[in-house]
Fold each of these.
Amino acid sequence: MKKTIGIVILAAGQGKRMGTDTPKPLLIASGKRLIDFPINEAKMFCEKSNLSFLITAVTGHKRELVNDYLAHNFQDVATVFQKEQLGTADAIRSYFDQQKSGKQYDYTLILCADTPLIRSIHLSFLWKSLLSQNLDAVAATFIADDPAGYGRILRGEKGFKIVEHKDATEEQKIIDEVNSGLYIMKTDYLVNHLEKIDANNMSKEFYLTDVFKEEANVAPILFDDYKSFVGVNNPDQLEEVYLELNYEKIYDLKKNGVFFYDSACTYVDWDVEVGAGSIIYPQVSLRGKSVIGKNVVIDAGSIIKDSRIDDHTVINPYSIVDKSHIGKSVAIGPFARIRPDTEVGESSKIGNFVETKKAILRKGVKVSHLSYVGDAIIGEDTNIGCGFITCNYDGANKHLTEIGKGCFIGSDSQMIAPVKIGDNCYVASGSTINKNMADGDFAIARSVQENKPGLARKFIKKKDK
Ligand code: UD1
Ligand code: CA
C-alpha cells in the first residue's frame, strides 16, 4: 500500500524585512512566484517516491491575495487560515485544526514558502534518512557561514534540539550547524509534541522547532549544499536566489546542447524551454513561458517574453518579442518590437525599427524597414517597403488592414483601416490608401509632381559670410 504524507507550506508570515506590500509567497523570481517552487518540488518528490499526498498552504498575512493566486494556479492545493502570526507551531496547529484529514496522513512534510532553491532530491534524501534510520522526525540542517538569525542545532546523545538565535547563549551562538526549516515527521509524533509547545521564549512565539527533543528518536540531517536552503527574508536574498535559479537553469540547458557565450549576464526564466543547437548571446533575457526551438539564434540584448520561436529563426540584437509566435527560419530585427498577438509565418523577415501588434504575417512576408503593422493580416510573399504604416486607430476603435498575397506595397505608404487589398496588387510609393483594391489592381494616391525650371534659386537661402 502507498504511504501517505500531508504536506504543509508555511506562508502566513508578514515578511516585514522585504519592505514591500506584496505578500512574500507571491514575490517573483525567475518568472515564477516564490510559493510555486515548494509546491512543484513537493509534488515531484511525492510522485517519484510513490506517495499519496495532499498539499495545504497555511496563509495569514494578505491571505486573500495568496489564496486567490493558489485557487487560480494550483486547484489541488488547499489553504487554511492562521489568524494571528503567533509562530510556526501555531501555524501547524491551525493546519491540524482546519485540515481535518491532516492527522490521517502517516507522515507530515513541512516546507516554508520562502525557500525556492530546495529541490525534490533534497526531499527524497530527507525522506530516505527518516525511513532507513527508523526515526520519528528529521530536520534538514546545513553549516552556515553566518549562522546569525537561524536556529542552532544542539546534538544530544540520542536526539537533538533547536535553539533559536534570540534565545541562544553566547556559547550556543558559536554553533554553525543551523536549521533550514524543512522537516519530515511521523504525524503522530508531531501532533503529540505540538500540544505541549508554549511561548516561553524571547519572541513570545510558539516555535515549531520545540518538537525536537534531545531524548527523542529524532535526527538532524546535515546537507552540504548550504546554498539550496537560502530563505528569502530581504531584497538581498531575493537577488541571491534569482541568480542561483538562473545559474541552475542555464546549467541544465547547456547540458542539453544550448550554447551561451557569457551566461553570467544572460537571463533565462525557470519555465523557458530551449532546443538543442540554439545560441543565446549575452544580455539576452528569455522570460515567462517562452518556448525556443532548435538552432535558433537570439542575439545580444533581445528580450523574449511568453513567446514561441520556431527552429532556425534568428532574432537579431536588441529586439523584443512579447506574447507572439515566430515561425521557422524567420529573421527579426535588429531593433524590432514584436508586440502581443503577432504571428510571423515561415521564412518571413522583419527588419530594423519595425513594430507589429496583433498582426498575422503569412509565409515569406517582408517588412524590412521602419514600419508599423498593427491589426493587420498580410498574405504570402507580400513585400512591404520602407516606412509603411497601418493607420489602425480612429481615436475610439481599432480597425483591420487586410493585404492579399504576392503584393508589392511601395515605401512610405499608409493604409487607413478598415481597408482590404486583394492579391497581387501594387501600391505606388507615397500613397495613402483608404479604398479597397481588387486582385491585380494598381493604386497610386499622391499629388502629381510639377518641375519649374530654375525656380530653386528663389528658395535656396545662402548664409551671409
Ligand atoms: C525559522 C526557524 C529557524 C530556522 C529558520 C530557517 C522557527 C521557530 N524557527 O526561523 O530555526 O533556522 O526558519 O529559515 O520555526 N510563518 C507562519 N506563521 C507564523 C510564523 C511564520 O506561517 O506565525 C511562516 C513564514 O511565512 C515563513 C516560515 O513560517 O514561511 C518561517 O518563518 P520565519 O519567521 O521566516 O522564521 P525564521 O525566523 O526564519
Ligand atoms: Ca525565514
Amino acid sequence: MTMTTALTQDQLKTLVGQAALRYVVPGEILGVGTGSTVNKFIDALAGIKGQIPGAVSSSQASTQRLQALGIPVLDANEVQGISVYVDGADEIDGRGFMVKGGGAALTREKIVAALARRFVCIADVSKRVEVLGRFPLPVEVIPMAAAQLVRRFAALGGAAAVRLADGVPLVTDNGQHILDVRGLAIADPPGFEIEVSQWPGVVTVGVFARQKADVCLLATAAGVQTMEFAA
Ligand code: 5RP
C-alpha cells in the first residue's frame, strides 16, 4: 500500500522556490521579489550563487537575505534591464494577472518587474483564483489621501482600511501607507489597474496586470505545475 502525506504550505513554498532555479540565467543580473515564497527561492540560490553576478531586489528584507548569501545587490537605476524577475503573489488568475503587496513591497515589486523581460511567479496552489479580489487588495498611498481613497473604494463596493503594524499605520520602504481593500471582485484587472492608478494619492495599486506573470510555477500536492501565459 502506498501512503502519501500531504505537504504543508511551507513545504510547497520550498518546492516551488527550488523549481524556480531553472529560470535563473547564469552570468546575468537577477530580479528578486519579496515574501515567504521568495525567501525559499533565495535560500535555494545559495547553491548557485557563484553564477549570479548580482541582483536587483524589491525590498530591504530581500536585500538583506541576498547580501547575507554574498550576492551583490544593485540599485535599480544601475541596470537597464534584467532577463528574469522571480516573485510571489497573493493571488493569480488564469491569465497571469496577479494581486500583490501582502508584504507591503508592491511599489518596488512593480518597478523591478517593469525592468524585467520575464516575470516568473512562484506560488502555492492556495493563490490560484478565478477572479482577483478574494485577498484584500493592497494599495500603497500617500497618507494625506487615505480618507478620500477609502471613500472612492467604498463607491466601488470595497471596504478599505489602513494597514496597521503594532497598532499604528504601517510605513512602507518608501515612507508611505497601505490600504487593504476587501470585498472587490476584479473582473477586468487591466482596466481596474489603469483607473485606480490615476486616483490622486495612489502610489501603486496591487493589481499586476500590465506587469503580469509570463510564467507561474504553482506548487500543488501533485508537484510543481508550470502555467505559461500569452503576452
Ligand atoms: C509582497 C508580495 C508577495 O509576493 C506576496 O505577498 C506573497 O507572499 P508570500 O510568498 O509570503 O505568500 O507581494 O509584497
Amino acid sequence: MFQSLEFPKEALIGKGWRSLPRRFPVVSPATGEAVVEVADCGSEEAAEALEEAVAAQRAWSQATAYERAGVLRRWHDLILAHEEPLARLMALEMGKPLKEARGEVRYAAGFVEWYAEEAKRVYGETLPSQFPHKRILVRYEPVGPVYGITPWNFPAAMVTRKVAPALAAGNSFVLKPAEESPLTALYLARLFLEAGGPPGVFQVLPTSDPEALSRPFLEDERVRKLTFTGSTPVGLKLYGEAAKTLKRVSLELGGGAPVLVFADADLERAVAETVRAKFRNVGQSCVAANLILVEEPVAEAFAEAYAERVKALKVGDPLLEETDIGPLVNRAALEKVEGHVQDALARGASLVAGGEAKGLYFAPTVLLDVRPGSRIFREETFGPVAPIATFQNEEEAVARANALPSGLAAYLFTRNLSRAFRVAEALDYGIVGVNDGVPSTPQAPFGGVRRSGLGREGGRWGLEEYLEVKYISLGL
Ligand code: NAD
C-alpha cells in the first residue's frame, strides 16, 4: 500500500525541494528493509539554509500576527486532512502502531491550532513611570532565527511543538529531524508549503551526520535560538556549544518517570493508567513510567491485575489495526532493554510476563520485586518493561522518587485529596500526573527539571521560549 503513497524524500531548502546525490536509507524497524533513500544534507546545505533563514526571518517577523495565524490555521487543517498518510509514514519509518500514530497526528495538529490562536495574543505592556513626562513600553519580538533538533520517538508532535510556537512568534525555523524519522518531518513541511507558508520560513534538512550539519548553526551568531529534544548526553553537549554564541536554549531531555500507587488509590484505574504510562509507544516515550512503586498492602493485587492487562497487549506489525506493541526502533534500543531485564533478574527480580525478544520486537514485560540499585531504576529503559517494587509509607515513596536523576514526569495514584496535593507538591518534577497516566496536551507546559532540561513547550510558556523582550523608554 505504501508503494502507491507519494511522500517527499528531498531536503526543503530556501525556495523549494532540493534533490541531492548523497542519500541515506530510512529503515523500517518492522521489516529491517530500507523504505527509501533520503537526501543527506551536509555543511554546504546548512550554510545555504542558514542564509535563507536569516532572510526569511525579516519578512516573516513583519507579517501581521493575523497573516501568521492564517498560515498556521491552514497548516493545522491540512495535517488533520492527512492523518492517514502521516500515521502510516510513522508506522513505516519508526514502527509506531497505527492507532497510536493516528493519535499522535491529532496531538501534533493540536499544537498548530493552539499557536495559530496564540499568535494573535502576543500583547505588549505599558508600565507606570515615576516621572510624568516618561512612558515605559514593553514589546515582545521574535528571538530567532531558530535551529531545532528533534528525536524519532514522536516524529510529528516533537516537530509541531517547536515549529508552531516559533512561527507564531514570527521566527524562521530550520529543522534537523532524527535520522530514523525524516519522512514525517518532510511530509509536514510539504503541508506547510501547501498551506501558503512562505518559502524559507520553515526548512527541513535530513542528514546522516547530525553533528556536522549542526555545527554552522551552532557557531553562527545570527542563529539566536537552539531548541533540542533528545537524550541528556547530547543535550548537555549542545548546551555547551550554544553557550559560545550565547544563544537562547530550550532542552527537552531524557525522563524515567516514577509512579507511586498508594493503598487508597482506585486500583483498577491505577492499573489502566499505568499500563498506558508505560507501554504507549512501546515504552519509547520521555514521560514513560520507569519505576512503579506500590504501597505494600495493595502490591500483590496491583501486580496481578497489571500483569493480566499486559499479557493482553497485542504485539505485531505496526501497520495492523489491532497492534498495541510494535518493534523497538533499532538494535541498540533492543540491547538496552535486554540488558536492563537481565540485570534486574540477576539481582533477584522475578519475571511475571514477557521477557523474550523476536527480531526488534520485545514482548511486554513485567518484573516484580525489582531491587533498589538495579539499572532499570537508574537509567531510562525506553522500552516495554514495567518494573514493580513496593514501599511502606508516603515519605519513603517521595524520597525514592526524588532520588532519581531525571525530573521530567512523575505519577501518583490516590483517592485522598490531601495526599494528592501533598505528594504532587513534594515531587521534584516538571510534570505530575495525579490519577492520570497521559498528561501531555498542547495548552499545558511540558518540560522537566534537573537532568531533564530547560524551558517548557506547550501553552503560553511554549511561546515565551521564542520571544525576546524589548523595553522602550519614551520621554514626552
Ligand atoms: P538522541 O539525543 O540520540 O537524538 C536526538 C536528536 O539529536 C536526533 O535528531 C539526533 O540526530 C540528534 N543528535 C545526536 N547527536 C547529535 C550531535 N552531536 N549534534 C547535533 N545533533 C545530534 O536521542 P534519541 O535517542 O533520538 O531520543 C530519545 C531521547 O529523547 C530519550 O532520552 C527521551 O527521553 C528524549 N525525549 C525527550 C522529550 C522531552 O520532551 N523531554 C521528548 C521526546 C524524547
